Amino acid sequence: MPKFKTLALSSLSLAALLAAAPAAAQTFTISWWGFNGDKLQAIIVDPFQEICGCEVVFETGNNGDRLNRLQMRSGAGVDVIYLTDSFSQTGIEQGLFQPIDRAQIPNIDELYEMAQAPQGEFGPAYTIGRIGLVYDASQVNPPITSWSDLWREDLAGMISLPNITTTAGPMVVLKAGDHAGVSAYEDPDATFAAVAELVPNVVTNYNTGSEMINLFSTGEIAMSMTQDFTLAPLRAAVPTIEWAALEDGEIAVLNTLNIPVGSENVELAHQFINFVLSAEIQQQLAEEGVDAPVNTNVTLNEDQAAMWTYGEDNIARLQRIDYSLLNPARVQWLDLWNETFGM
Amino acid sequence: MSTRIHPVLIFFTVLIYIFLLGPLVIIFGAALSDTTYLTFPPQGLTLRWFENIWNISAFRRTIVTSLQMAFLGTFIALIIGIPAAYALNRHRVTLPASLSTLFVLPILVPEIVIGFSLLRSVTVEAGVPVWYALLIGHTLLVLPYVIRVVSASLASFDFSIEEAAISLGSPPAKTFFTIVLPNIRSGMIAAFILSFITSINDVSISLFLTGPGISTLPIQLLAHMEQFFDPTIASVSVVLMLLTILVMVIVERTLGLAIVAK
Amino acid sequence: MKRLAGWMLATPATLMIALLLVLPVAATIGMTFGAPGAGTWGVAQPYADFFTSGFRRRVLWRTFEVAGWVTVISLAGGLVTAYVVSRCPPRVKSILIVLAVFPLLTGVVVRSFAWLVLLGRQGMVNNVLQWSGVTDAPVAMLYTQGAVIVAMVYIFVPLMVLVLVGVLENIPEDLLQASSSLGAGPVASFLQVTLPLAVPGLIVGAVLVFTASFTSYATPHLLGGTRQMMMGTLLHQQAMVAFDWPGAAVVAAIMLVVIVATVLLMTRLARRMNPMTT
Question: What is the pTM of this model?
Answer without folding.
Answer: 0.89
